[in-house]
Amino acid sequence: MRSPSVIYLITRTHGRRTHLLTSENLKAISKSRSLPEVVDQLLRSDYASEIGKLPTEEVDSVRLEKIFHRTLVERFLQPVKDTKGKAGEFLEAYAARIEVENLKRILRAKHSQEKIEEENLIPLGREHTILNFPALVKVENVEEAVALLRETAYAAISGRLDDYRRVGLPVVLESYLDDVYFTRLWETLKDLPDSNGLRWLVGEEVDLHNLQLVLSLKMRDLGSRLIEEIIIPVFYRLSKSTLRDLIQSGLDGAPEALAGTSYDDVAEQLLKSKEPSIDLEITLSRRLYQDASFALNQLFLELGYVVAYMLLCEREARDLVTIATALDLGISEEALQRRLLL
Amino acid sequence: MSVAGRAAVSRGILLRLREQLEFTKKGQELLKMKRDHLASETNKLLSKVAMRGKLDGRLMQAYEHLKAAYLNLGYSGLASQAVTVDRMQVRVRPRSIMGVIVPEVIIEKEPSIRSVSSSSAYHAASELSGLMNELIELAEAEFRIESIAYELMMTNRKVNALERVLIPGFIELIRYVEGRLEEESLEEFFRGKRVKQVIRRAKT
Question: What is the pTM of this model?
């Protein structure tokens, strides 16, 4: 039996869902001819309070991106605040994807010993994370950044430092952060009642993440052994042996390696694409958000509904960022439509 | 005013004029050699500049891929990927081609894009970094052509000035001096004959 706090959360999320922009809204926004036109259309949405403060002459895609990210963070944290117990733990672990993304950005910059400012990160308040981002952005190198993660959930990353130094690629550390994130998510999921819907959403995301990791690294001709070492050790519908076959075969042999799994259509779509390395991220993200849309209609009385809502918040933010960037770069409407995750 | 109008006439001046003419002709030959060399250098560079059209096309395509990466990741996402690229290091040193100083770009370190983790950002980065060497080569060739063309124009002017003004002037002057010297020697000869004739008449 579900706890009253979970029932309350699901009910609140049903209400919050109505605040999301519909596909029609996003399509209409994507047809805007300029950024002020986008702003006008968003004045009737959750973005109004932030966007309304922006003077017209200061409207640009970078500022809008920040606003979209701020709203995404707020939306992500609302369900976490509303829940306690195991469900709260799970949602907290789920919302940690924002701090993981920020950590990745810091590690990438430190890998090249480049400066990074807090404003280059997704805005996440100090009260929502135990990571000390102001200190992390100031460190000189990766080693110092890893030392600052000692007392956090990512402490074991120091064990990957030797691999990172040997390979010289930040993707080793990035994949480890994903590993910590998804493993924690998978573990907290086990303690929840009625977790089938959640398992499906999280499991598919891990599978798609592994697919993206393997295919993108294979396209760059990185060694099979390295790829095998850095895949996330959570296997839902993609078994370890299937992933191993995919690592050996690469994109050309992907339909064969993925035959019989629910991802064979993804491989076929990528093979049909003229630029698979560019379309890879979009194709896999689209699949994830399609799952979320499906879950939103199927899991309406489960915790999976909240996760599906969070995923759709993420999709909305990504699509809005894409639209703002496209308008800034003068990209044609047709090309923009191909890049949207709708 | 012609050169001849101002000239003093003596055997010494004639010798000096002939030496100057010889020197000017040698200078003209050297300038012609320089002009030919610069022209052949320009011809060599033209084939490199001709690749501009193709390079423009490839660059536009690379920019399209970069735009796609921007759309996939957003500005901050792509900036975070771009920060991992090891910067290219180049050294520019001056080189002389027949006295024309042109830059020579030496690539000391190629940009390394291995650390880019996003597939679309990596694709755009590999296309752009693949074009960097050719872009530098083209910029070098274009700058060289510009400097050489200017020098070629100046050399041509000098050759033309020597060929059409200075050398014909010297030739005219030498001819004038030779003529004047011949006239003077004829006058001297005639004067000597007349003197002899007068002396002979006075004796008879």
Answer: 0.85
**Residues of B with Cβ-Cβ distance to A168 under 8 angstroms:** 114-115
H/E stretch holding B107: strand B100-109
- From CA B40, how far away is CA A33, in angstroms rounded? 52
CA distance A111 to A143: 9
Tell how far CA A22 is from the center of its chain: 20
Structure-block tokens of residue B102: 């042109």
Asked whether the predicted pLDDT for residue A161 surpasses 80, the reply is yes
Q: Is B60 on the interface with A (CB under 8 A)?
A: no
A134-150: burial string, b at 16+ Cβ within 10 Å, e else: eebbbbeebeebbebbe
Q: Looking at chain B from residue 106 to 125, which residues have their Cβ under 8 Å from any Cβ of chain A?
A: 114-115, 117-120, 122-124
Give the pLDDT confidence of A184-237 residue by residue, as tens digits.
Answer: 999 999 888 878 899 999 999 999 999 999 999 998 888 899 999 999 999 999
Are A339 and B117 inside 8 Å of each other by CB? Answer: no
Instruction: Give tens-digit pLDDT for A215-230.
Output: 999 988 888 999 999 9
Written as one letter, the residue type at A127 is E
Q: Which residue of B has its CA nearest to A286?
A: B72
Contact A281 B118 (CB under 8 A): yes
Identity of the residue in A109, A170, A325 whose CB atom sits nearest the CB atom of B70 = A325
d(CA B4, CA B18): 14
* pLDDT classification of B2: cutoffs 50, 70, 90: low
